[in-house]
Amino acid sequence: MRVLLDECIDRRFAKELEGHEVMTVPQVGWAGIKNGEPLSRAQSQFDAFVTVDRNLAFQQNIPQFTIAVIVLESPTNRLKDLRPLLPKLQQLLLNVCKG
User: Fold this and answer.
1) What is the sign of the dihedral through the CA atoms of 61, 43, 48 and 39?
2) pLDDT tens, 22-72?
3) What are phi and psi of 36, to 5 degrees?
């Protein structure tokens, strides 16, 4: 599965997410792009978009995109706060693969 991590997520988290091809928004050259453009671009190249931006659902019409959008509920975007969410994220990504 090809996974894109939003630029608000610590880039080191990509190495923690094993078994998937994981890239970050800055790695693909889309840093600083706003207003849903990363999602529009990502849907043709990735299977899932992972973010910690809880406002995304209010800012974008998520159902219009063909990419799975996963919003992690974490106190911060720091690696130490994201690591405990890895098992749940892995399970969600498995469900995306099956769906």
Assistant:
1) negative
2) 999 999 999 888 767 888 899 999 999 999 988 877 777 788 888 999 999
3) 85, -5
54 close to 32: Cβ distance less than 8 angstroms? no
47 touches 23 (CB < 8 A): no
Name the phi and psi angles at 58, rounded to 5.
-85, -25
Question: First and final CA of the chain: distance in angstroms?
Answer: 12
Neighbour-count burial for 56-65, b at 16+ CB within 10 Å, e otherwise: beeebebeee
pLDDT digits (tens, 9 = 90+) for 77-97: 999 999 999 999 999 998 876
Q: Which two tokens stand for residue 78?
A: 């720091």
Q: What is the CA radius of gyration of the chain?
A: 12
Domains and CATH numbers, the chain: 2-98 (3.40.50)
Hey, is 62 helix, strand or coil? Answer: helix
